[in-house]
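Question (not urgent): is this output format expected?
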Amino acid sequence: CLGISPDGLAIVAGGDNNGPKVSSDGARWTPAMGNLSRTLLASAAAIAWDPVEPWRVFLATHTRGGGGLFASTDGDLDWTPCTTVPQFNPGSNRPRVVGHLLAWGLDGALYMGDVRGSVWRWASFGASGAGGVLTEVARVGTDAITSLVADPLVAGRLYVATRTRCVQLDGVDVAGGAQVRSMNGTDAPARTEELAVVDEDGI
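Got this back:
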């Protein structure tokens, strides 16, 4: 997985079992393993830069010890654990599902899709990115979520894909849980690996 900072000054890449690395030019890479145990073989599953604060970046990772969500505010060299509740691939040394598992909502919250089919909201975090409020906003099934994107025009709306279905979630930014609407029709893909908003009218 790959993430580019909003100001274009840094790139973070993550691969299996060797942890994240950071680059300023795409040619030279430096390990960014601060506070991530090499003995646990941290594998990056998703990377999301804060669209408002370009010095803050979040990392979804799996390790032999469980993994979870981490945040960095110092050029991606050191990581602070945020939560270990959402799991991105428990029981495996390498993530089988990587990519769009983190998405920023219009409400400024970070949304996550985990391996158990749950969508989580991480909000009200401080400058460090840690110490936030974690809320499970929806359970869309029992299969691993393969992709999650936020609607850039409609607040509180997410589109989520799993191994077997695609759904639209509305109201993820309000208390009480989200409304789930199936997007599977007769022409829906049998297996969706990734979603993307391509324009104002299409997914």
